[in-house]
User: Which sequence fits this backbone?
């Protein structure tokens, strides 16, 4: 959530920028509860001080009747004020949680995702001397994807992934891990993009795929709840994660990290779960939108001074991975309405899919500043001894289903086979085609 002091000092701007993101926040009401909360807190602290003074006066001796009466009065008055303070505090926090993160200055203002801006295009749409098929047609014909039996066992929007496609997925995983754990590659991308960052490689991590409800809420990723899977009847109110960053970004909650340890860079692999409510039509074909899918996700923890450059590094890594696979893509700067509530900035990469004759999202990069860290209480102890909030970033390395879709459709052959991108062949036993 936002710093209340920032909201006090920038009330009109906060209201306007919240509206640009699609959130109608009553900043005046919020500040009203803030004022009342501070007044009650002052009164509570004053009564506590009076109680302490009274206790000190009678220490070691029997209190007088007057002191006992005064003590009872203070206790009752304090209980009444603490009750009022608790109620006002609850209203204040509820309103504060509704305020989204403020968009960065370069985020375009827009009311729908249609106003996202293409800022870069790499490669030309793949051309064929035959009519290209979509991944679903190829996958079904090659017995790589079986949704019919999955529907029988589990329900719609699940699939059995089989044979060569399984090997391709694990090849992509090995390629990504080899790339992100290579300090020379990370250093190269930092230099090429003129970023003021340490050349520190990513650490692979297998995070939990379940998350407590209170932690999910602190991450501000629980909503919309209708897109999440809740585990009924569990005392800890567990939910299935929608992406690895949900349990990666919260792993240092209530901790203070030494500045010397930063940045912390992780690449997490997890199975993820989403309801995908509201999708329909061709998006339901194949494995583009599934209730269960596998992802490789990047997460970084840094100081405020380097948070923005960490965001740019993640985008550079995403582009590097796409270029290594030789998949045509473009880069979108997401507008205010599409970047998400906790995000200050959001960038998408969309791959060209010949079978759909359009670009489709394969990556997203989110810069949260200190918005998530404030509620998680994830902090850094600076070298000068001061303590500040961490800045967090998350970004897709590869959503594996969509990566395979892009490979199948861009590298398909006339006879229904798929050429393996050169960088993946070492992880496929040297095979050049499946």
Assistant:
């Amino acid at each position: 959530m936002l710093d209340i002091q920032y909201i006090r000092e920038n009330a009109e701007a906060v209201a306007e920028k919240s509206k640009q993101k699609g959130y109608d926040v009553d900043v005046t009401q919020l500040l009203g509860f803030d004022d009342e909360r501070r007044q009650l807190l002052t009164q509570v602290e004053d009564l506590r001080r009076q109680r302490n003074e009274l206790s000190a006066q009678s220490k070691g001796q029997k209190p007088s009747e007057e002191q006992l009466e005064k003590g009872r009065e203070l206790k009752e008055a304090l209980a009444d004020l603490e009750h009022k303070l608790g109620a006002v505090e609850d209203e204040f926090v509820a309103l504060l949680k509704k305020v989204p993160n403020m968009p960065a200055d370069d985020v375009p203002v827009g009311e729908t995702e249609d106003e996202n801006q293409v800022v870069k295009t790499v490669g030309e749409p793949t051309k064929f001397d035959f009519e290209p098929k979509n991944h679903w047609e190829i996958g079904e014909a090659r017995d790589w994807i079986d949704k019919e039996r999955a529907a029988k066992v589990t329900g719609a929007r699940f699939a059995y992934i089989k044979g060569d496609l399984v090997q391709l997925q694990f090849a992509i995983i090995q390629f990504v891990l080899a790339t992100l754990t290579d300090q020379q590659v990370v250093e190269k991308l930092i230099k090429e993009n003129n970023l003021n960052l340490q050349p520190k490689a990513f650490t692979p991590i297998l995070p939990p795929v379940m998350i407590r409800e209170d932690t999910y809420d602190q991450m501000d990723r629980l909503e919309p709840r209708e897109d999440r899977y809740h585990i009924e009847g569990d005392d800890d109110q567990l939910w299935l994660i929608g992406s690895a960053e949900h349990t990666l970004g919260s792993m240092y909650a209530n901790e203070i990290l030494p500045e010397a340890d930063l940045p912390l860079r992780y690449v997490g692999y997890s199975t993820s779960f989403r309801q995908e409510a509201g999708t329909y039509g061709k998006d339901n074909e194949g494995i583009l939108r599934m209730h269960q899918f596998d992802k490789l996700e990047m997460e970084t923890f840094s100081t405020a001074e380097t948070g923005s450059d960490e965001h740019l590094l993640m985008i550079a890594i995403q582009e590097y991975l796409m270029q290594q696979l030789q998949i045509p893509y473009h880069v979108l700067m997401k507008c205010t309405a599409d970047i998400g509530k906790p995000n200050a900035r959001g960038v998408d990469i969309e791959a060209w899919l010949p079978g759909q004759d359009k670009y489709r999202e394969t990556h997203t990069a989110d810069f949260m500043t200190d918005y998530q860290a404030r509620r998680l209480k994830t902090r850094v102890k600076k070298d000068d001894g001061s303590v500040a909030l961490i800045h967090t970033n998350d970004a897709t390395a590869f959503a594996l289903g969509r990566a395979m879709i892009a490979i199948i459709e861009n590298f398909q052959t006339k006879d229904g086979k798929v050429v393996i991108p050169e960088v993946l062949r070492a992880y496929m036993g040297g095979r050049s085609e499946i």
